[in-house]
Amino acid sequence: PFGWLDAPPGINRLLGLRRLHAWLDPAINRQFKSDMQHYAQLFWHCSLSDADYQKLVAS
């Protein structure tokens, strides 16, 4: 999604840092999907389906 780690600065950088951590640590990678779903509810005020999750991590 827009602004994982690059400009412009925004709230999605928090999730971008978690995604980067998931790439580097297999233990974090196993729980990244649930972390991202919780993040979507908290910051985007929506539920994240499996299809939506796949689209976001593929980008």
From TrEMBL:
Top-level division of the source organism's lineage: Bacteria
Spell out the protein name for this chain: Iron ABC transporter substrate-binding protein
Q: Which organism is it from?
A: Escherichia coli
The taxonomic lineage of its organism, from the top, reads: Bacteria, Pseudomonadati, Pseudomonadota, Gammaproteobacteria, Enterobacterales
